[in-house]
Specification:
By secondary structure, the protein is mostly beta strands. It is globular, with a radius of gyration of 33 Å. β48 and β49 form a beta hairpin. The protein contains twelve helices and 61 strands. The termini are far apart. It folds into five domains: 206 residues, Galactose-binding domain-like (Jelly Rolls, Sandwich), CATH 2.60.120; 79 residues, Immunoglobulins (Immunoglobulin-like, Sandwich); 141 residues, TIM Barrel (Alpha-Beta Barrel), CATH 3.20.20; 105 residues, Immunoglobulins (Immunoglobulin-like); 331 residues, Beta-galactosidase, Chain A, domain 5, CATH 2.70.98.10.
Length: 1052
């Protein structure tokens, strides 16, 4: 082997690397201080670009000293830096969530350890006034050895940390050759078992910094706010490369006015500043601090802020603050983890547009420039160390989910003193680098790694070094039963952090004088269609100040772009698509945005739940409303204005703006009763939509940008359209009753053992006596059904149905059959024909599941009215008590034991030409009982294809909740469904079977029909893919259902 085995030594995280320090980019004193990006500075030399590269399947295959001067690399390939080598055809993509991709044998890794040899030649001119040169790698996965001009420079691991090396003695004026050997795995990989694609290579910037002979090596900006947060005392301890030297400092405002200036005394700078503008996520005001020595200047943008806890409530600058956050990985479908600054800005832009104010850097430190952008744009950051040891839960006979209960993480690494240095080192690398970042308000020790002496030491060091920030570590709840040092120490953890805590658990903690603020570092899992319980968790925030918010899991779907299909659909791969083992399938497709950053309906739902203003109706007649300001630091009149639209029967009939600053004078986190120029209309359905808009332009949003809305119903009327449909039906019935003997309107029928054929003046309907459904509906010589009508309880399982779908399959919900037992026919006084059928549904090899008593009334003008009384079998429902003893209700919030119904309704197969939809219900986005806050009740039109939400893994999508009516039409015919009690519907080009069986959206094949699901209701969406089971109030889990609707065919 050509290298020493540092990569299997958990006591060696670096060789010859420089001591940890805060991130900054120095410049010469002559440099223009207004530089915009570090590439513009004169002491920064970027080494990104095309490098010579050779890949080896094993470190043992790399036998040649490629790093020696003069080595011929013409047989090497070319690879861009930064990048992941898997994105360029080397190795394979592998996604695994918790399972290690190699045997658990720390600190050893497999001999078949892939590696990459990198070589880069560059010409360097040493800047005037410099004498020391440092080589920086901001991110390399997993470890690397460095040579310059044939001289060994050093070794570094911890993939997401900066490795800095002194190359002064090896760097030449002129031509230089840099060689790097990167290994896929090292002992540190046991501590980097994060839920992501396991990418490899040099994935962040590489550069040289030129420094004087002596310089400020490190500094820590500490501030103590005072005088009611209007002033601060600032202390900056300094560390020098050699002896202490004078350091001039200057603090200036955003417009360049000097606040403080002077010269250091010894090893520190102290000064006071007054009349401060404070920093927060709503107003991220930054000052500029410059530190200058003879020949070098360091510029830092800083904000003044203080985070604290009082009475288990988190305060920023003395004001209560709430985190509306998301977990964010570095993930791009085209370049993997080698994300660009433009990519990061795009993410932040979308976050700001959707009302986020916080980011958790799951589960490792981001690139240094990320934090500068958070400072600038206003995000609170949980800065997480590069630690996750999740794979230990998969060790044989030690599974964390054993018997359905969470046992502590096996403490082989987390409570192992031999690994303490490794854990503490990773935390220190994070804290030391990012300690001067204003946006970082919480240090996180890592993620899902268990607890023990290693983290106790890391937390103790963190609190000792930086007591000004809060500390976080969710995995402390998984502490060992027999810790190494006796009683487990939680004293250095500031927050009670949980993942996916069910609402009852949160009530239990928050109602009992909590000793720490409660935070959900991961919740409302956003995998596929979801999350569906955002509003429920928001209501907890309203109820408890001690619940300081949470972070959605997660921001983006992790997909690998693999080109397009023949018809132009993008192909994004997930776990298993590259043939890797182990893998966790599409569990990486769990974000609020799709891989290409297209927002999902879940993101839109989050935005409107967390709108800055909520409007409540107090009295419609007098126009009295309550404005609720949900911002933490902003009076509404300073930043927002309102607009309103009055909807009559779902259509806008009046609108206006509200810019009255006296009316909008609502302090942060407070309410105010106001009079608005909005009065209800008497006719039809009437509502008002009140929207909040941004008053001024901001970095990612223009003036006028819509931030959210409330819809308030001003009366209880149904729409005129529904009234017209019902009145027309009544009038027709009355007319037919008066002309009961008129043979023109009479309905006749014939029947045999299988069907009843019903003939009216304009229609022929065929009713199947064996199923209790219509096989055919021909109206005025136009066929409306391409296949027989069906009862339907199945939906293509959503990702959030991940747990309960096992019960659905076990119950046979996907293999239901329908059988009718008896059908009677009766002619009514209005000449309508009534069919009465008793039937049932049963899965193959299971008992009857639904007992259905149905009436179908066919009117002389061809309208079909259906009314069903449906009883659900007690045993299939899980109601065992009358049959068996000692049955207790399951109280595990994560493991449902009852197979509640996915949906209940009927399914029609229409001509694919019937592709134009109109409806009154929740739209324009898909909507469900627990996922509808991004939609509103209105009248909408759409093409059927546009109702499809294109999730990466196909699943139930595109439903619309609480609809009075829906029609689907082509140029010649229309079918309208309506009812007094609202229904749900789904119109799609795909069958539920197609959505169920296909693994990728680009594999979907259209059915050749317009598939029309008319639902009594669907169960809700929830966030059960990695969270609590669906709340009972959203389950379709009743014993009895009454389901009715009207079908009206028309010729256009």
């Amino acid at each position: 082997m050509i290298i020493p085995k540092y990569f299997e030594d958990n006591h060696t995280s670096g060789v010859n690397d420089e001591p940890m320090r805060a991130y900054y980019i120095p410049t010469s004193t002559a440099q223009n201080p207004d530089w915009k990006c570090r590439q513009e500075t004169d002491r920064f030399f970027l080494l990104n670009g095309d490098w010579s590269f050779r890949y080896f399947d094993s470190i043992y295959d790399c036998q040649e000293a490629f790093y020696e001067e003069g080595y011929d690399t013409r047989h090497f390939d070319t690879l861009p830096v930064p990048s992941n080598w898997q994105d360029h055809g080397y190795d394979i993509h592998q996604y695994t969530n918790t399972r290690y991709p190699f045997p658990f044998d720390p600190p050893y890794v497999p001999h078949e350890n892939p590696c990459g040899a990198y070589v880069r030649s560059f010409t360097y001119k040493k800047p005037e006034g410099t004498a020391t040169y440092h080589l920086n790698f901001e991110g390399v996965d997993s470890c690397y050895y460095v040579w310059l001009n044939g001289t060994f420079i050093g070794y570094h691991q911890v993939s997401h940390s900066t490795g800095e090396f002194d190359i002064t003695n090896a760097l030449r004026e002129g031509e230089n050759t840099l060689a790097v050997l990167v290994l896929k795995w090292c002992d540190g990989s046991y501590l980097e078992d994060q839920d992501k694609f396991r990418n490899s290579g040099i994935f962040r910037d590489v550069y040289v910094l030129a420094r004087p002979e002596n310089y400020v090596r490190d500094f820590f900006i500490k501030m103590q706010l005072k005088d009611n947060y209007t002033a601060a005392d600032v202390t900056i301890p300094l560390t020098f490369a050699k002896e202490s030297i004078p350091v001039s400092y200057k603090l200036t405002t955003a417009c360049g006015c000097v606040v403080a200036e002077g010269v250091s005394e010894g090893d520190s700078i102290t000064f006071s500043a007054s009349d401060l503008t404070l920093w927060n996520a709503e107003h991220p005001y930054l000052y500029t601090l410059t530190l200058s020595t003879d020949g070098e200047t360091i510029r830092q943008r800083i904000g003044f802020r203080e985070i604290s806890i009082k009475d288990s409530i988190v305060y920023l600058n003395g004001q209560k603050v709430r985190f509306r956050g998301t977990n964010r990985h570095d993930s791009d479908p085209y370049v993997g983890s080698a994300v660009t600054l433009e990519h990061i800005r795009k993410d932040m832009s979308l976050m700001k547009q959707h009302n986020f104010n916080a980011i958790r850097t799951s589960h490792y430190p981001n690139a240094p420039e990320f934090y500068e952008l958070c400072d600038e744009y206003g995000f609170y950051v949980i800065d997480e160390s590069d630690i996750e040891i999740h794979g230990v839960v998969n060790l044989y006979n030690l599974n964390i989910w054993k018997e359905g209960k969470k046992n502590p993480f096996p403490p082989f690494l987390s409570d192992n003193e031999d690994w303490t240095d490794s854990v503490v080192d990773r935390v220190q690398k994070n804290v030391m680098r990012d300690k001067n970042r204003t946006s970082v308000v919480i240090w996180s020790m890592g993620n899902e790694a268990g607890y023990g002496c290693t983290f106790e030491d890391a937390l103790a060091w963190t609190k000792s070094y930086d007591p000004t920030r809060l500390t976080h570590y969710e995995s402390s709840m998984h502490h060992p039963r027999n810790p190494k040092r006796g009683k487990t120490d939680f004293s250095n953890i500031d927050l009670r952090s949980r993942m996916y805590a069910a609402i009852p658990e949160m009530h239990a903690y928050l109602d009992n004088n909590p000793d720490k603020p409660f935070i959900q570092c991961e919740f409302i899992h956003a995998m596929g269609n979801g999350p569906g319980d955002i509003e429920d968790y928001y209501q907890l925030e309203e109820q408890y100040d001690t619940f300081v918010g949470g972070f959605v899991w997660e921001w983006c779907d992790h997909g690998v772009y693999m080109g397009t299909t023949d018809d132009g659909r993008k192909k994004f791969y997930y776990g298993g698509d590259s043939g890797e083992y182990p893998h966790d399938g599409n569990f990486c497709m769990d974000g609020l945005v799709y891989p290409d950053r297209t927002p999902s309906t879940g993101l839109k739902e989050y935005k409107n739940v967390h709108r800055p203003v909520r409007v409540h109706l107090e009295d419609a007649a007098s126009g009295t409303y309550i404005l609720q300001n949900n911002l933490d630091f902003t009076n509404l009149k300073e930043e927002l204005y309102l607009t309103y639209e009055i909807l009559q029967n779902g259509m806008a009939v009046a609108s206006g703006e509200i810019r009255d600053t006296e009316l909008l004078d609502v302090a942060p986190r407070s309410k105010k009763t106001v009079q608005l120029p909005i009065k209800p209309l008497e006719d039809g359905s009437c509502s008002v939509i009140i929207s909040s808009h941004q008053l001024h332009e901001k970095p990612f949003t223009p003036a006028g940008f819509k931030l959210g809305f409330d819809q308030i119903m001003l009366n209880e009327n149904c729409t005129d359209a529904l009234t017209t449909l019902l009145d027309a039906e009544k009038a027709s019935a009355a007319s037919c009753s008066c002309a009961a003997n008129d043979t023109v309107s009479a309905i006749t029928y014939t029947e045999n053992d299988r069907v009843i054929t019903i003939n009216g003046a304009d229609f022929v309907y065929v009713y199947n006596k064996l199923t209790g459904m219509f096989d055919s509906m021909i109206y005025k010589n136009h066929s409306f059904l391409k296949r027989p009508m069906e009862m339907n309880i199945w939906r293509a399982p959503t990702d959030n149905d991940r747990v309960v779908k096992r019960l659905w399959y076990e119950a046979g919900y996907d293999k239901m059959t329908q059988r009718a037992y008896n059908t009677t026919v009766e002619t009514l006084s209005d000449s309508s024909l009534k069919l009465h059928t008793t039937s049932s549904m049963a899965p193959i090899y299971r008992q009857r599941f639904l007992e259905i008593d149905a009436e179908w009334i066919i009117t002389p003008d061809g309208i079909v009215r259906s009314s069903m009384e449906i009883e659900r079998d007690a045993i299939m429902r899980g109601m065992y008590s009358e049959y068996f003893e000692d049955v207790t209700e399951n109280d595990n919030p994560f493991q449902p034991n009852e197979a509640f119904l996915p949906r209940l309704g009927i399914r029609l197969f229409l001509s694919k030409r019937m592709n134009q939809a109109e409806y009154f219900g929740y739209g324009p986005h898909e909507s469900y009982i627990d996922k509808r806050r991004a939609s509103y009740l209105g009248k909408f039109t759409s093409r059927v294809c546009d109702l499809h939400e294109d999730y990466m893994r196909p699943q139930e999508n595109g439903s619309h909740y609480h609809c009075e009516y829906v029609s689907v039409a082509d140029d010649s015919r229309k079918l309208t469904v309506y009812n007094e009690q609202p229904i749900s519907f789904n119109l799609s080009e795909y069958t539920e079977e197609e959505l169920t069986t296909k693994g990728h959206n680009y594999e979907l094949e259209k059915s050749g029909y317009t598939v029309f699901c008319i639902d009594y209701r669907q169960s809700g969406i929830g966030s059960g893919s990695c969270g609590p089971q669906l709340a009972k109030e959203y389950r379709l889990d009743d014993t009895h259902y009454t389901f009715s609707f009207h079908l009206k065919p028309e010729i256009l």
